[in-house]
Amino acid sequence: MLRVGGEAVPHALTRCGVIVKIESTLFGPQICEPETNIVFPQGIPGFEKHKAYQLFHQTSADVVGYLQSTDDPDLTFSVLAPENLNIHYEFTLTDEEQSLLQLERVEDLVLLVIVYRRFADEKQEKTGDLNVNANFMAPLLINTQARIGFQKVLGKAERKITIKSD
């Protein structure tokens, strides 16, 4: 189960039913209930035309989840709760953001960060060693009750955190 600060993300964010089949390059065909979609009304920056996603995980112990576009089998974001990396956020939502999320209770808000792997330099590319990077400057905010999300860009500060495995 995807975990946020040691707590399991509400099961409603990861359940599947038997109504709609979506294709996923990563997961293969999935049968899901449309009402379990997480809708990003503005899309995710760079992917604005893709509005609906499903959140999957591979095992019950996995801290990494996968946000799969319901209309593009090749569009999947790896996500995790920032608390799993000891990152904690403090910011204020604008009235517009709160309205977009239809957020009534802060307890219904889940933050996730997009993580990705890439080569840091030519040497790593030759050896095949990948760095895992996270986009901490633009977390995904999801209202677990309304199933609405958006990516909040926090500012222009350049902060990069790289986690390397030995």
From TrEMBL:
Protein location: Cytoplasm
Top-rank taxon, per record: Bacteria
Keyword Chaperone attributed: yes
Pfam families: FliW (PF02623)
InterPro entries attached to this UniProt entry: Flagellar_assembly_factor_FliW, Flagellar_assmbl_FliW_dom_sf
Example of a GO cellular component annotation carried by this entry: cytoplasm
Major subcellular location class: cytoplasm
Entry keyword set: Bacterial flagellum biogenesis, Cell projection, Chaperone, Cilium, Cytoplasm, Flagellum, Translation regulation
BP GO terms, sorted: bacterial-type flagellum assembly; regulation of translation
Protein family: Belongs to the FliW family.
Known role: Acts as an anti-CsrA protein, binds CsrA and prevents it from repressing translation of its target genes, one of which is flagellin. Binds to flagellin and participates in the assembly of the flagellum.
Subunit structure: Interacts with translational regulator CsrA and flagellin(s).
Identification of the protein by name: Flagellar assembly factor FliW
Species assigned in the record: Sedimenticola selenatireducens
